């Protein structure tokens, strides 16, 4: 069964105007220009001056502490009340997968372009550390030079159900051991390069390893490490002025707590509309990706002092909302109530973390977000969230699906040129012809031609992907290696390099200084929303 994301994409690429599209998404822009033009004409999102001033103070201090407070960052923080383009990702060891860099590049591109439209949008990136530890947070997969199987690297010695902000740092033995493993894997790929390229590749790898070691040693928390990995690249190397937003910062949580009030005040209506959206998706033949809400639904989790997340239930009485739950670690019972009229959560603010469906509503309470750069998962579940948020009087920002990027490398291209892989190879003259046409249309701001070229490229890449999905050969065969290296399909549940492999795999090809720029160069004024692009990166 298809998901709501297919409804979103079919409107952009096939111009299918489903009458329920507006119900699920409010508005779907087809390209960056359309999104920014619409955003510039929307009514102002009002935020209390006291709240904005507090947020600015916290963010200035946070960036100064990390050594990321450049003049451009200061400027963007100072202008945050004019509007925000927002993206985010859960924090993952070693900086996580490459799509994070893509989201950041799209966010920066939109912020820079917004200057032309009369509403300057400051670029903000959420460093999400409130999610419970799970494989995608505590494990990365690195491609293997000898096999389609990957080398997984995992965080060890962590407690189950702990939130990622509580991950212990200063585990230098673990860090050094795994940096050594990463280096050895890269050395195997170096042997696949021509001799004249090998030293340059090794220099780039050493630069990345040193960078990860030093950012880790400079961090007092897991969130700081992730903020430094991307903040140094975005703000020190590139001076883009990206604002890092630490979602678990105690003072940030004290501000965000007011975002729960509209949902709590209209909790029955919120649940009702969320479930209505879920049923509507089912009636249209789409699969909801988030379960329906129960009557006991609470819009937040409670996190104990030890970092363990407690799922709360909410019970309504005449004058009060009563929240209760139990910590799985030590059996501690959580129980508190608040007056239904006052809805004062301030005494519990530092321990409350938003759920998947309520996080955007909390961000809207402290900064005026007009655009949100999103991936497929966010596009899917927000079809249920947006109607419910709208029902309680909170305006949801426009969702822009970033462009999926497929990247090249010397070893991928050499493998692709093998005669027996002809039908599976993406790297063909027709690909480069399309890339040339797109580049020309982008330079000339030819909106219609750029869209047609992007549509043809998307079709070409998806056709190759479907062929590759049918491959089932030994893990050391050439076609299996290509399936893993080019597409990130190291198992049946993984597709795309960006969501399979860490950011530093691409950075080892581009070099650390050009990693984020390689993504950003693909975006322009008329970039279609939700396309698929090819990065012809080689050493």
Characterize the structure shown.
With 539 residues, this protein is an alpha/beta fold. The chain is built from 22 helices and 15 strands. The protein has a five-stranded parallel sheet with strand order 5-2-1-12-13. The longest helix is centred in the middle third of the chain and has 23 residues. The relative contact order is 0.16. The model has no long low-confidence stretch (mean pLDDT 94).
Q: C-alpha Rg, in Å?
A: 23 Å
First-residue to last-residue Cα separation: 41 Å
Strand order in space, largest sheet: 5-2-1-12-13
Please tell me the overall pLDDT: 94
Task: Classify the helix fraction into a percent range.
Answer: 40-55%
Low-pLDDT sequence parts: none
Count of β-strands: 15
Structural class by sheet pairing and helices: alpha/beta
Number of helices: 22
Largest sheet: 5 strands, parallel
Shape summary: globular
What portion of residues belong to β-strands?
Answer: 5-15%
